[in-house]
Amino acid sequence: MEDILTSNVFGALKYFSPESALVPFLSKASFAQGEKPFEDLSANVKVEYKFWPWVQESDCDGCEPDVLLRITCPNDRKFLVVVEAKYRPGKSSKEEAGEHPNDQLAREWENLKRLAEKELCEPLLIYLTADVSYPAQDIEASQRELANKNRGKARISWLSWRHLPALITDDSPEMLRDLAEVLRRLNLTFFQGFSTVEEHPSIQWTFSGPPVYFEWIYVSPEEPLRWRFQ
After folding, report:
1. Which three-class secondary structure string do you get for 26-85?
2. Where is 113: in which H helix or E strand?
3. Least buried of 34, 59, 122, 143, by fewest C-beta within 10 Å?
4. Around Cβ 216, how many Cβ atoms within 10 Å?
5. Which strand (E) or helix (H) includes residue 125?
6. CB neighbour burial string for 6-39, b if at least 16 within 10 angstroms, e if fewer
7. Three-class DSSP category at 88
8. CB 94 within 8 A of CB 141
9. Are strands 122-129 and 156-160 parallel, antiparallel or unpaired?
10. What is the CA radius of gyration of the chain?
11. 98-118: per-residue pLDDT in tens?
């Protein structure tokens, strides 16, 4: 399911200018203390997408992240971004004994960091989930394995699928509006208040004298009200 979701979302975003949705979406990514690494990302960027690439750098166990983004800014600043997307299940691997990190995010960070060094880019790992708040337990576990194996600290930020629908407006291209509708059907939205209660006209009726017995026969918004009393 998460692969289908990744394909639907990033596959659609690829065909539109970055400022249409990708840049606003990435700008919502945040670290544990709330800092947003892409908050000031220029809309006028160039983006290269690679889906499910196999990456294995020296001194690392291999990994297959969901999306690899190469982002080039107008001032030639470059980012190499791995997006690890989840829907309902958590990470596919956790810390194990051994020389190299095995936790999924830790392993992806190790490969990303080395690849970014070769390409002279700034690395960033985005953990994309359906959570409504920062998944501290998952990310802290990844940081802990890196620390235990003397690999330093990773730049892992968090982003939710739920951020995207609110960024797509009625003026957005039709495909993006359809994409937002898909996410809403999957309940991948933040709480947006209660829906408006549909109002029905009040029933105007009177009778003289106290009723001995009153029975509701059938009530439906689509059909006339039928009642009787004895």
Report:
1. HCCCECCCCCCCCCCCCCCCEEEEEECCCECCCCCCCECCCEEEEEECCCCCEEEEEEEE
2. helix 104-119
3. 34
4. 9
5. strand 122-129
6. beebbebbeeeebebbbbbbbbbbbeeeeeebbe
7. coil
8. yes
9. parallel
10. 26
11. 889 999 999 999 999 999 999
Q: Within 13 A of 21's CA, how many CA atoms are on the CB side?
A: 26
Do residues 37 and 155 lie in contact, with contact meaning Cβ atoms separated by under 8 Å? yes
Instruction: Count Cα neighbours of 73 within 13 Å in the Cβ-side half-sphere.
Output: 13
Cβ pair 53, 68 in contact under 8 A: yes
**46 confidence band (pLDDT: 50, 70, 90):** very high
Copy the structure tokens of residue 145. 């394995």
d(CA 172, CA 139): 33
Question: Per DSSP, what are the bridge partners of residue 80?
Answer: 70, 123
Query: In this model, does residue 224 exceed pLDDT 70?
Result: no
> Which amino acid belongs to residue 88?
R
Rounded to whole angstroms, the maximal C-alpha distance in the chain is 92
Query: Model's pTM, two decimal places?
Result: 0.81
Exposed/middle/buried for residue 65 (C-beta within 10 Å: 0-12, 13-18, 19+)? buried
Q: Is 209 exposed, middle or buried (0-12, 13-18, 19+ CB in 10 A)?
A: exposed
CA distance 161 to 128: 7
Q: Do you know the residue count of the chain?
A: 230
Q: What is the identity of the amino acid at 155?
A: R
Pairing between β-strand 46-51 and β-strand 122-129 as defined by DSSP bridges: unpaired
